[in-house]
Write a structure and sequence with these properties.
single chain, alpha/beta, Spore Coat Polysaccharide Biosynthesis Protein SpsA, Chain A, 2 domains, two-stranded antiparallel sheet, about 15% strand
Length: about 450
Amino acid sequence: MAELTASVIVPVWNGREDLPDCLDALLAQERPPLEIIAVDNASQDGSAQLIQERYPQVRLIRNPRNLGFSGGCNVGLRAAQGDVLILLNQDTVVDPGWLGELLRLLEMEPDIGVAGGKALYPDGRLQHAGGYVNARGEAIHYGHGQADTGQFDECRDVAYVTGAGLAITRRALDAAGFLDEGFWPGYYEDVDWCFRVRRAGYRVVYTPRAVMVHKESSVTATSDHPGLFQVQRNRLRFVLKQWPLEKLRDEFLPAEQAWLRAATAEPALVAALHHSYLHHLLHLEGILAQREEHAEQWTTQADVLAQVLVSLRATAPVLTEHETTVLPSVSSPPLLDMVDALRERQVVQERWIPPQTPLAGPLLLAFRRLWSRLVTAAYVLPLVEQQNAFNARVVELLEQIAQQLVRISEREQVAGQDHAQLQRLVHHSVEGSQESGRELAELAQAVQELRSMVADQKRSD
């Protein structure tokens, strides 16, 4: 069999400090690539200039704006000439035999569509040895954080390999398509891609003999709401796109609800999750376009996806037993009554009301792009009104809790642990109030778009 040629695509965004190590290691490969393409995503730190000045053998493509990981990589994939297309993060350093091992594997076994290797942290600990996806749709690296003692030194099929260093054959790319740019700016696009490759009939394989160090210095997600929301929104996008309706109902929904009810997560994460459920509920059209196979299945899929998301929106985390026992010892009866009322209403219980008139046949085709907004009309408007009332009660509760904390501090009537638990309740309330404001903005926009679309449809009739 003829040797395969490789094109390596390096997406670049503000990676000037890491780029030399990455590119020098690529240029020193025992089996050199056909071409190296650096796709600059409108970096602001001189990365593009560094490549232009120091690496004339690297083809540089400049994007006028940041297209995200998927968008930047797709630009490089479309420009590449090799039989094998390889994505490589700018903050990696590959071993000399890394590329040769990936190509050798793909040459020996043509049914492999995607191959990836072992990724280590700079201190030698394992970062990635292939990955799997759990019932909640979380992408989990095998061996993450473990010492590398050879426990993952066998080549094997896996659910996905990390996009930080991934090789895909042109045959598999033609069958599965490019990266989904809906995962902007990053996270889960590599998992989604591997699932699509496997659905197209190709294998996804991990090989321990292709080794690289991944510094993870280009990680974009943060621990604040925007970063948490980005990761959770993309996790849900992956699940809603990829999983059959039965799996969504029977596995994902119970697992997600159980996790929410366990209440072990930080309030900011729970808030980001509820925001993600609402976001996808208001943007079902984009998900359905990815799932759609036959028009007659469209409404069924819309109903199931909406029911899952509404059920998750109605699932509220609960306070721990210790937190609930702390409150009576430090709070007045009116404050306790308000806490109980808020606990019952901390997530508005949206009702799923199917449309009274089914959309079928020609009418379905005419209104299919309107459907994803129309199905929300039964709950969006009352939700805005109820959420506003809830916000007012949260503010009143916060004021009373603040006053209680002052009195507690002055009289020193509670132990430090109890005081910390009460502060955590305040944190929950603050996050809930802030999240309500963010969601109301999305709801207001959805209502405006819904009214505009209905008005346009009436005019066209």
